[in-house]
Amino acid sequence: MRTTRGKSFRFGVLDLSTVLIMIFLLLPIVIIVLFSFNPTSATVFPMRGFTTKWYREVLRNEIFISALINSVYVGLMVSCVSVFIGVLASFALTRYRFRFKEMMSYIVLLPITLPAIILGISLLSFFASVLGISRSLLTVTLSHVVFVTPFVVLIMNARLDKFDITIEEAAKDLGANALQTFRYVTFPLIRPSLIGTMMLSFGLSFDEFLVTFFVVGRKNTLPIVIWGMLRRGVSPTVNVIATMVLAISITLIIIANRIAKLRTLY
Fold first, then answer.
1. pLDDT at site 12
2. Which of 92, 46, 88, 55 is nearest to 247 (CA)?
3. Rounded to whole angstroms, how far apart are CA atoms 184 and 168?
4. What is the CB neighbour count within 10 angstroms for residue 260?
5. Phi/psi class of residue 134: alpha, beta or left (left: φ > 0; alpha: ψ in -120 to 50)?
6. Which stretch of DSSP H or E encloses residue 18?
7. What's the CA gap between 219 and 228, in Å, rounded?
């Protein structure tokens, strides 16, 4: 009886702790979403009604639309380039043996071990002093590629380490060349991981602020615009933008979850 009561008490405490932690994590998000529909500009509770005028105002804001387009453009470019480079690097690190392989793996993963502020300052100095490139969306894209590619390498390394290479060998024994083996055997098996890394790369680039702050030019991205708005206080438009970004993030999570389920089915 004591053992049963002790277990029940322990699990009851754990359940309560889990609920409190979930409330602590989700409550700020719920508040942001609620106040994006607040009819007054003051962030006070209880709300005095319900309105979508702030959404209409944000969608008519040229600065926000321009920043959103810039962020989407940079995110798409970064996801394509970083996945291309990361996949090639991952194949090299997992499939081949060469000198200084371990050192190269450390160098590839170095950007995610550095503080973002150090990485941003280093990239700013590199672009300005070495390459002589002025700050623009190009420098933002290149900086995000440097920051995001290590994450792609980590994910693809985990996938390729578990890849059964005998499947490729069997395809070659049946007469398939290297290109056919990759197209019909390797690519379908790693495709879910590729799609997942592309979405992760887009999300990391879309959300990145610190590195962007040092290398951005006249064309701002969405995090920079939000930061500028927050300097004047939390307004309903900031809540609306945060809600929109949250909706995009949830959509990406749902898509990634569906892809993971498809992977388990096939």
1. 63
2. 55
3. 10
4. 14
5. beta
6. helix 2-35
7. 13
211 closest CA partner among 131, 118, 126, 87: 118
Write out 190-233 in H/E/C secondary structure: HHHHHHHHHHHHHHHHHHCCHHHHHHCCCCCCHHHHHHHHHCCC
List the one residue out of 80, 94, 91, 61 whose CA is nearest residue 201: 80
Cα–Cα distance for residue pair 258/76, rounded to 1 Å: 21
Delimit the domains of the chain by residue range.
Answer: 62-265
* pTM for this prediction: 0.80
pLDDT for 234: 67
**122 vs 28, residue with greater confidence:** 122
Level-2 CATH architecture, domain 62-265 = Orthogonal Bundle (1.10)
In 10 A of CB 122, how many CB atoms? 16
Residue with token string 């989700």: 26
Q: Could you give the CA distance from residue 110 to residue 150 in angstroms, rounded to a whole number?
A: 8
**Is residue 257 predicted with pLDDT exceeding 80?**
no
Q: What is the pLDDT of residues 13-53, one digit of tens each?
A: 667 778 788 888 888 788 888 877 877 766 666 767 777 88
